[in-house]
């Protein structure tokens, strides 16, 4: 009985240590990647094409003509949150003029609003989760054009139509697990960006509303919380492949991988075994028609 009590006490101590390690607010500049010549964002004069650039981790810029949408900004690091091998292509000060910014969830590595505050155009449309704390925090950082969309509500920005929808219909906006995803319609193409997870019921609803999806950007690291019985937080290779099987996109771009925690969180809190290579292999093994394209940070993929 004493052994069990001691084990329980150690688990509580460990849990608090991991929690405070993860929540520490000591922001530092994330390392920049030395991108290959011609890969960094320069824009394209071809207004009929769409350009996807992975800035780092789950941060991407989708460009269509003069329109540029930044999704899930994460530009800094702090204890237990490191970009690892997936270093950044640019800093906030190097960002191009943006037509809009969108965040899928109120998590630091998807909504680095304190670092993003260095972006000078504070009137840029900022799409956040309705009912969450994101709007208040963004206003405190000086942003003035914050948009909260209802489930499956759309907004037109330039030549882009952006639709926001819930990942998990069972979660409340105040929940840590509450997430949104985005459909971007532009230049005759439909793109889907998934932040962490899409429940199967949501996938079916998306398929009914958008029967022809050209590009999906999907998490693949299979992020799980060890202390909570390996609770899954993000798609793994198999989950991402199942979504491709249901939605039948032409192209899939893996995101949300190479994240590194601290020694403490990596050892006791986080589990993430999914890789973009495993995702591509799973798609091949299932003989799906979707083409998986693994991009380096800073690489421009023109579709």
Derived from helix and strand composition plus strand pairing, the structural class reads alpha/beta
Just give the CATH class: Alpha Beta
Give a count of the beta strands, DSSP E runs of length 2 or more.
19
Strand content: 25-35%
Q: Helicity range of the residues?
A: 10-25%
- Put simply, the count of helices is 7
Instruction: Give the neighbour order of strands across the main sheet.
Output: 8-7-6-4-3-2-19
Largest sheet: 7 strands, mixed
Apparent shape: globular
Count of distinct structural domains: 1
Give the rounded overall mean pLDDT: 88
Fold and architecture overview:
- The chain is an alpha/beta fold and 303 residues long.
- Helices cover 23% and strands 26% of the residues.
- It has a single domain (30-302), classed as 4-Layer Sandwich (Metallo-beta-lactamase, Chain A).
- It has helices at 2-23, 113-116, 134-140, 200-209, 237-247, 263-268, 276-285, and strands at 28-29, 50-56, 59-64, 67-71, 76-77, 100-102, 126-129, 146-149, 153-157, 160-166, 180-186, 189-193, 215-219, 224-225, 231-232, 251-255, 270-271, 291-292, 300-302.
- The strands form four sheets. The protein has a seven-stranded mixed sheet with strand order 8-7-6-4-3-2-19, with helices on one face.
- Helix 3 (134-140) links the parallel strand 7 (126-129) and strand 8 (146-149).
- Helix 5 crosses helix 7.
- The radius of gyration is 19 Å and the shape is globular.
- It starts with a helix and ends with a strand.
């Amino acid at each position: 009985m004493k052994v069990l009590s001691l084990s329980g006490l150690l688990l509580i101590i460990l849990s608090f240590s991991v929690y405070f390690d993860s929540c520490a607010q000591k922001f530092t500049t994330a390392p920049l990647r030395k991108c290959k010549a011609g890969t960094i964002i320069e824009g394209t004069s071809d207004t009929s094409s769409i350009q996807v650039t992975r800035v780092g981790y789950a941060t991407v810029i989708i460009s269509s003509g003069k329109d540029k949408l930044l999704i899930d900004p994460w530009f800094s690091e702090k204890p237990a949150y490191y970009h690892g091998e997936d270093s950044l292509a640019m800093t906030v000060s190097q960002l191009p003029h943006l037509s809009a910014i969108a965040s899928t969830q109120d998590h630091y590595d998807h909504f680095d609003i304190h670092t993003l505050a260095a972006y000078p155009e504070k009137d840029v449309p900022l799409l956040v989760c309705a009912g969450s704390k994101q709007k208040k925090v963004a206003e405190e950082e000086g942003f003035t054009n914050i948009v909260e969309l209802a489930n499956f509500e759309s907004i037109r920005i330039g030549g882009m139509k952006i639709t926001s929808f819930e990942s998990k219909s069972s979660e409340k906006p105040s929940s840590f697990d509450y997430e949104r995803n985005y459909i971007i319609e532009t230049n005759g193409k439909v793109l889907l960006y998934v932040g962490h997870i899409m429940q199967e019921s949501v996938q079916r609803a998306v398929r009914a509303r958008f029967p022809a999806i050209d590009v999906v950007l999907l998490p693949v690291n299979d992020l799980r919380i060890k202390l909570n019985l390996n609770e899954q937080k993000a798609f793994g290779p198999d989950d991402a492949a199942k979504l491709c099987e249901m939605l039948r996109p032409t192209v899939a771009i893996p995101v949300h991988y190479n994240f590194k925690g601290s020694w403490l969180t990596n050892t006791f809190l986080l589990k993430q075994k999914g890789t973009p290579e495993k995702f591509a292999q799973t798609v091949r093994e299932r003989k799906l028609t979707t083409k998986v394209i693994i991009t380096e940070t800073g690489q421009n993929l023109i579709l």
